[in-house]
Amino acid sequence: MAVIRFHLSLPVFLSPTAPKTARRCLTTVAMKPTTMASTSGTGDSGAGAAVVRRVPEMKADDMERIREETFRRYTVTAEAKRKGEGVAIIWFRNDLRVLDNEALVEGWRSSAALLPVYCVDPRLFGTTHWFRFAKTGALRARFLIETLSDLKENLRKQGLDLLIRNGKPEDVIPSLVEKFGAHTVYAHKETCSEELEVERLVAKRLQKVSVSLQAAQQRNQKHGNSSKLQLIWGSTMYHIDDLPFDVSNLPDVYTQFRKSVESKSSIRGCLKMPKALGPPPPNVDDWGCVPSMDQLGHHEIEEVSKGMRFVGGETAALSRINDYFWIKDLLRIYKVTRNGMLGPDYSTKFSPWLASGSLSPRLIYEEVKRYERQREANDSTYWVLFELIWRDYFRFLSIKCGNSLFQLGGPRKVQQRWNQDTALFECWRDGRTGYPLIDANMKELSTTGFMSNRGRQIVCSFLVRDMGIDWRMGAEWFETCLLDYDPCSNYGNWTYGAGVGNDPREDRYFSIPKQAADTSA
Predict the structure, then answer these.
(1) Cα–Cα distance between 106 and 401 in angstroms, integer?
(2) Is residue 281 part of a domain?
(3) Is residue 429 part of a domain?
(4) Is 505 annotated among the ligand-binding residues?
(5) Does 484 count as an annotated binding residue?
(6) Is residue 314 part of an annotated ligand binding site?
(7) Which of 48, 128, 271, 361 gives a 20 to 30 Å CA spacing to 237?
């Protein structure tokens, strides 16, 4: 039976509307709680961690050294020729990195001056669509702040900077195009409805912007009559143009997709970066500041005494690869340990940086292949790529399914009775179900922003199968809390776990006593 892939985690509350398939081994709300693990801690699932573990576990000097080494490896040795003219804008979105960033490289090639921009869009800090939870929780807000700070610093080291503006991209980007006379705006393309609507609005507003005759001529020379907004695909390991089928014909079953792309497609190499990306336009009088927690609507976070503390940014991401692959040599046993729940090293923990775009999946692929050449190739090295193919699949699936991914019946329009019992949901949300395995996982999520892949499978199954709660409540709570939130993987996994996804074979149930026993073994 297929496994639910969250990137890469009774007394039983029996809802009267729970599906019949979930009414297994369920007795009474007054059942005595089990005692296989303490629920008092706030760290890794099942307790046991006594201190905060930073991810990556490295000193700042070592992280900077690894960043420099990796940048050198992915930089062209010869002086790259720059043939462009005028100003181009790079609109950073969920691609907050320098390495293997095609929008950044294309913008550099097509211009004489490059202006990187990030818009602090207030909609990202509003509320979710159905249940009005915070769209971006405090932990992910802090991770974003760290990521932007790191991106700004890395761009400075390449001769640029990051212009940060508060406001909606459809307001900010056109005004900057007009001010600096930019001929083109480059950005990475997204796939889900909210992001696509922003792209549409930006493109529409750009059509109305008046630029100088010189800028217009430069744009037409480079791009003919194309739009000023150039959207580039760059978020997956397999490029969308290299798939052996149109996305509308994407297989409904992951295994069919994986076998098809592995046999018929190839993975493009990482883009080599020029030695310097500057200069920026000469007349930038205010680059703006990285937002504070208060400006994003959150209080400063009090550090917890247990669990993992992820550090945001490309520098941290590259350091984590180095730490996990090369220093600790954990890649060779990944397949054996990947379903663990305790500590920073049972899995790669790349997902927060992949979600923010601080890390390119193609760079991970190339580092895996380098490891295989220099050390060992085995099932574990392949399995990291196997998980990245899952990530690709959910992203392509979001194109095929469209908004059905966010609807109650899911892509298959399943007719099923769900309840929205707030009291029951809050017990699950706050880790107060009385089941230590569920409660420890939910507390880990709220205090660290992370949960293991297996933990996510279990708490999803408990919410939708045992409680009969509307799966969208769980999906939106994960949207609030997860450091590694992205709509494709999150909602793809929740529809899958709830049995409303595109795969008609999926009806997976996790027995909590069995999972607790396996975890304690």
Answers:
(1) 30
(2) no
(3) yes
(4) no
(5) yes
(6) no
(7) 128
Judge whether 389 is annotated as a binding position: yes
Q: pLDDT digit string (tens) for 296-332?
A: 999 999 887 788 999 999 999 999 999 999 999 999 9
Are the C-beta atoms of residues 359 and 98 closer than 8 Å to each other? no
Q: Please tell me whether residues 36 and 127 are part of one structural domain.
A: no
Boundary (domain end) residue, out of 351, 380, 403: 403
Q: Is 391 annotated as a binding residue?
A: yes
Could you give the 3-state DSSP secondary structure of residue 447? helix
Residue 435 annotated as part of some ligand binding site: no
pLDDT per residue as tens digits for the range 106-150: 999 999 999 999 999 999 999 999 999 999 999 999 999 999 999
Query: Is 439 annotated as belonging to a binding site?
Result: no
- Comparing 426 with 48, the larger pLDDT belongs to 426
425 annotated to a ligand binding site: no
Residues 265, 243 contacting (CB under 8 angstroms)? yes
Does the annotation list 394 as a binding residue?
yes
Which tokens go with 55? 């991810």
Question: What is the residue range of 229's domain?
Answer: 79-235
Is 334 annotated in some ligand binding site?
yes
Rounded mean pLDDT of 71-87?
Answer: 89
315 is in an annotated binding site: no
350 is in an annotated binding site: yes
265 is in an annotated binding site: no
Q: How far apart are CA 151 and CA 70, in angstroms?
A: 15
Is there a domain that residue 423 lies in? yes
Give the number of residues written for the chain: 521
Structure tokens at 102: 């095609």
Take residue 160 and report the two structure tokens written for it: 């640029």
Does the annotation flag 390 for ligand binding? Answer: yes
Among residues 235, 267, 290, the one where a domain terminates is 235
- The CATH number linked to 206 is 3.40.50.620
Sheet holding 87-92, edge to edge: 163-166, 113-120, 87-92, 184-188, 229-232
- Alpha helices for 185-313 (secondary structure H): 193-206, 213-223, 254-264
The HSE-up count of residue 259 (CA atoms within 13 Å, CB side) is 6
Confidence of residue 12 (pLDDT cuts 50, 70, 90): very low
CATH number at residue 318: 1.25.40.80
Q: What is the DSSP string of 441-491?
A: HHHHHHHHS---HHHHHHHHHIIIIIS-B-HHHHHHHHHHH-TT--HHHHH
Cβ 37 vs Cβ 233: under 8 Å: no
Question: How many Cβ atoms from other residues are within 10 Å of residue 247's Cβ?
Answer: 14
351 in a labelled binding site: yes
